[in-house]
Amino acid sequence: MALPIITIGRSFGSGGRIIGEKVATLLNIPLYDKELVKITAEKSGFHTSVVEQMQQNKPASLLYSLSGSAVEYPLQDQVFYAQSAVIRELAEKGPCVIVGRCADSILEEEHRILKVFIHAPISQRAARARDEYKITSRKPLDYIKYVKKCDKKRKAYYDYFTHRPWGKSEHYHLCIDSSIGLDIVADIIARAAREFPEKV
């Protein structure tokens, strides 16, 4: 039985990217995370820095969106649509792991898709921000504030483009707390992919 496409949504600092890499290795399928920035830039003509920046910015308000040209969408919307087209193209090629980028919503009509959301306690996520993302501060509380700020941006981006709340369990097949161990979580996702039913 063919493997499904695996989408991994994640709260900031939960280790979702690392888990995605592990799952892709276990299943011997492609991983798309930061690579999506480069591919989108190549196919759309947008500079890589623009694609990356538009994914990190909080979406414009509706008022701002309506105040622009009646023909041209805001830049962030254009980048999102360009990246959505790339994600659909990659999904058509076969099983893969896609981290973030609202892929669970973009590929919602896909016949075989395993949707996962990774979360973890705020204290562990703050520690990862300090140790792995090299966020420097002398105050432990600053790391927690940084993680919450990043989560807020991800939520705003996801909610705006998918029209549904970010991280809600009913939108995913698996919601897993990565504090049980990144390898364990990767093994669970890989097993779910291998045993994914023909029809869901």
Per CATH, the architecture is 3-Layer(aba) Sandwich
Run of helices and strands: EHEHHHHEHEHHEH
Strand content is 5-15%
Number-wise, the strands total 5
Largest sheet, spatial ordering of strands: 2-3-1-4-5
Q: Uncertain regions: pLDDT < 50 for 5+ in a row?
A: 62-71
What Rg do the Cα atoms give?
Answer: 17 Å
Roughly how much helix do the residues carry, as a percent range? 40-55%
The structure class reads alpha/beta
Give the distance, in angstroms, between the N- and C-terminal Cα atoms: 14 Å
Tally of DSSP helical segments? 9
Q: Any idea what the CATH superfamily is called? A: P-loop containing nucleotide triphosphate hydrolases
Which CATH C-level class is it? Alpha Beta
Question: Could you explain the architecture of this structure?
Answer:
The structure is a single chain. The protein has nine helices and five strands. With 200 residues, it is an alpha/beta fold. The chain has one domain: 3-Layer(aba) Sandwich (Rossmann fold). Strands 2-3-1-4-5 form a five-stranded parallel beta sheet, covered by helices on one side. Helix 3 packs across helix 5 and helix 7 packs across helix 8. The protein starts with a strand and ends in a 6-residue tail after the last helix.
Keywords:
Rossmann fold, globular, 200 residues, single chain, 5-stranded parallel sheet, alpha/beta
At a glance:
This protein is α/β, with parallel strands linked by helices and 200 residues long.
How is the topology of this model organized?
Elements lengths: L4 E6 L5 H12 L3 E2 L2 H10 L3 H9 L5 H6 L7 H19 L3 E3 L3 H4 L6 E7 L2 H10 L8 H23 L11 E4 L4 H13 L6
Parallel strand pairs: 1-3, 1-4, 2-3, 4-5
